[in-house]
Input
Amino acid sequence: MILRVTAIALIGLLTDALAEFCGNNRIPFGIEECPERAEEKSCTSNTSWVGGLQKTIDGQLLLQCCEYPLMEKYGQLMFTNVGENF
Output
């Protein structure tokens, strides 16, 4: 039992140590789940964000929606209007 708890704790610490943090928004990268390609028309989940864009030959814009289960806890909405934000 003690060995199992120790192993789980070490795996958790190793996962956190391998993740890198990207500034003030405190959302780690390296443990998120992103698809290989941009295939979605929108990212509808509260735990997702746009990780990449791709314009197709017929002019459609596809999104790469990355998932991070703790996004609701650590992320905060910065912009609600589409357009240029400076």
